[in-house]
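Usage example:
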Amino acid sequence: MPLYRAPVEDFRFLFHELLELEKHRDLPGFADLSPELIDDILANAGKFCEEVLQPLNQSGDEEGCHFENGTVRTPKGFKEAYKAYSEAGWGGLGAPESAGGAGMPPILTMAVSEMGMSANQSLAMYPMLTAGAYGALLATGPDWMKQHIVPKMVSGEWAGTMALTEPGCGTDLRLMKTKAVEQPDGTYKMNGTKIFISGGDQDLTDNIIHMVIAKIPDENGQIHDDLATVNFFMVPKFIVKGDGTVAAKNGVNVGGIEHKMGIKGQATCVLNFDDAIAWRLGPKPVPPKPGEKRSTSAGMAGMFGMMNQARLGVGVQGIGIGEVAYQNGYAYAHERRVGRALTGPKEPDKPADLEIVHPDVKRMLLQARSATEGLRALAAWTTLNSSIARSSRPEAESAALLEDLMTPIIKSFGTDMGFEAANLGMQCYGGHGYIRDNGVEQFVRDSRINQVYEGANGVQAMDLVGRKLGRKGGAAPMALFALLAGWIAENEKDQAMQPFVTGVKRGTEALQAATMWLAANGLKNPNDAGAGASDYLRLMGITMLALMWGKMAKVSLGKDGKLHKDKLMCARYWMERMVPECPMLLERVQAGSSSIMELD
Amino acid sequence: MPLYRAPVEDFRFLFHELLELEKHRDLPGFADLSPELIDDILANAGKFCEEVLQPLNQSGDEEGCHFENGTVRTPKGFKEAYKAYSEAGWGGLGAPESAGGAGMPPILTMAVSEMGMSANQSLAMYPMLTAGAYGALLATGPDWMKQHIVPKMVSGEWAGTMALTEPGCGTDLRLMKTKAVEQPDGTYKMNGTKIFISGGDQDLTDNIIHMVIAKIPDENGQIHDDLATVNFFMVPKFIVKGDGTVAAKNGVNVGGIEHKMGIKGQATCVLNFDDAIAWRLGPKPVPPKPGEKRSTSAGMAGMFGMMNQARLGVGVQGIGIGEVAYQNGYAYAHERRVGRALTGPKEPDKPADLEIVHPDVKRMLLQARSATEGLRALAAWTTLNSSIARSSRPEAESAALLEDLMTPIIKSFGTDMGFEAANLGMQCYGGHGYIRDNGVEQFVRDSRINQVYEGANGVQAMDLVGRKLGRKGGAAPMALFALLAGWIAENEKDQAMQPFVTGVKRGTEALQAATMWLAANGLKNPNDAGAGASDYLRLMGITMLALMWGKMAKVSLGKDGKLHKDKLMCARYWMERMVPECPMLLERVQAGSSSIMELD
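Running the assembly step on the lines above writes:
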């Protein structure tokens, strides 16, 4: 069975040394966050993931979910593990104390979430989706939901889902067919089919709160290709009354579960809404005046907030799988013997040296590790920015811009590198990696979904280039370049920092040139922007990880101990082997779209 | 169910226009190879793969192989399809007419093999392994085997395997434990365990001829960590006597079949040799004189020949999966509607445009296609070189060097790009790609094995850098650089060829610099060569595909029709988007091993 050791020491390094959370006690939710509390949470969450979630990962994959008599049964052991997770309070870690949660800031829930994803992505997704759903209710729901529904979700008694996708409608919400018709009592009657609903049904909780988007038809009952008709709804599996009492089963029926490549312990459901009672979230949409365009439903902000959190969460899934795949590849390379070190036998008394002596094996492991640890730093830094953005600090606005800009990077680059790390971990096993019993091929299959759901990675690139770069007159890239220039200026006189400053500079220059090129050409020919979007996203990802490695090198220089030496090793690796991609990616962006658009 | 259309037109382009096989009728086996015969074979093989093999691909994956009462049962339909394959003569296409084959040269068997791998890798591997085994018997077996065993394999009545790997021994043959002890009648008694034996057992044929390597113990019955004690053996499932009669079952027992990530219709077996009767191949090894080293068994040449063919064959598996994944991604992008073209709606009367309008989708498809078609050209060109190498032409020697040099490139770069193409094809499906019913995730799982078996890709890189570059005073890279320089000189005055010549030049310059760097540093510090081996291999792969695309562009320029225009489009794509990797890969090679070797 694969192993997993929670990277508690790395999180401690990030939180105490790199981000110095102790200096951020002014941020919302950070007041009680003493270093001891952080360490305590990390250690306990790590232990829980190692001991309770991870032992069910391979068996859950093997057994999968069952769809019987219209309901879902999760794999053996999931129910007990989920109960233990809830009872330990992990599901409510980030929820406000008023709702029964621990009130911890997102930087801690992110750490706990990553460890859960390493240990058992299928299982850890159930509470992750629940947290996303109660977050949306807290943001947009009426008081009775906050009072009677949210606490049940925080405690884990009830779960939540995001129900957005339909058979003919993924990215392009205009194509949605599910409709919700207002009833005299102010609720809505919902009809339609949603697919790919993670945790859409299960046997872990007494009730499930579905967060659904649907169109409100016009006065003739027709739905339109108009995004402004899309609204955000709360649709419980069992109807919940305003006083919190639970009534009959709602018209939400499970049409089936998907037979998937991976995350087989996670029930991916088809949900049929058959006259389901639904509650619209947010203020009631105002019908447009004649000649005016309908404005977007205010409740949709809750959906977008939930979706952005989910995108960051999926990026963290990539990091989590990257970590566990690295650990197993590393362990195998220290067990398996093959060949001799190129410079002469390391253990002449043994029939062969360990696989780890081979430079190509070390290269694979360092590629996986420097990406994973670099992305963990980027995710932590971005999550800290999200708290700064919600504070009254003067830098709140630029922190919000950076959080917004980094969301597609963490989702897309995070899951691409996570999938690569899964493959590298498996590659260390040679032919044995392909055998299911060894458990590493599961990481490849599980992590592959992270690149396609929650907005396929190409969609993230389009979002980055088509929306985020230009928004507010380019404020986000300007904030980013100011940050990069500031860091370079701060460190370029430091002799010991030279290799790292050079790397960050090189990435920054390529990224700036690519940004200028897109600004100059993307408006003239939008296909030029589209053709370079994925390469641009990767360029920003590599550059941001260069910055993270530069920052981590700075706090590691001159310190003793394995962790700091390893940080310097990874930082050098990133500058030497990944930063050289930057000019190449710039060249690809600048190649434009002419040869690409020829494909019919 | 996924679709597959055999790329007959592309093979016709390669054989008639690019390689002009009509001018090679002097080569061994080419005399009867008229253009009509080539077209006839391609069309019939393509039809067979589309109609007989491909419909069983998804069902074979779903059902898998069964291990019951000590024997293997293949998935439903495999037996009938295998019989039809054999009866149509595809299994003996490349075998000499004297053995009942069609005597076609390897360039045709390669084409038929690729189509089989696209259609159904699991099923097509059974005859591929048989052809490898009878090829080895033809090369090293005694007359009675050529007379009584080979024809049964050519007809498909019997199958063959390669039984090399052991539980503790993959790449490093010194660690092998299986031993074979000579008996008074000149046969050997073999004991040991082999694992990962593809087609190690099945219900398709009456007998299976295992090609096995094992150590011959010394006079005290001890085996040694000495490669020269390894010999090559023929071990039938049912004993075959010298007169061809089949006797009792041999001591070869199936220990089980592996539960794998993919190629589930292919039985990957554990074989236990329990006093199995084995026939050593090749002349009897001469015991070393006192003080001398034992020399390698002459029969091992047959094993190496079989292994090199298998490596090329695995590269072709990568190409085959790349092709079918591309076709399905392309088809899906022409069915699914999402969003609008960035330059304005293409089909304003439809609710959304087709997915193919998006530049990032075209980019993914062109990446898969230019790699797949480029690799197909490289494999065909290399296979033609293998025939030239076996001819009496003056260029036979340099053709042999190029074939040898390209073997790790086609295996490793071919399967890396095949896996990438499988992922890109799947990515075009968005979230739907992850669903097993859609059949594209199978390409990802199936093609993943191509990177790890038959020498993991990192092992190929070590073989390239550690052995093939330096052999015979660097004759192989010298032949390659002469070829590249010749092509550049021949085309650089042609205005229309400029973009392609520039690309080939850029790749060549980086490859030359990397080769010089490895020559200068690899001896001083072998870890420097090891650390850069994988990047060097990729650099050579990209450069060789630039050459292939340059050659394909040349024969396509000025010609009408979709095929030639598409070739020019792919050639431009390769030069614009893949060749820019070359200087980056050079930089990675030159980064050396110092940061990498720090990982403990």
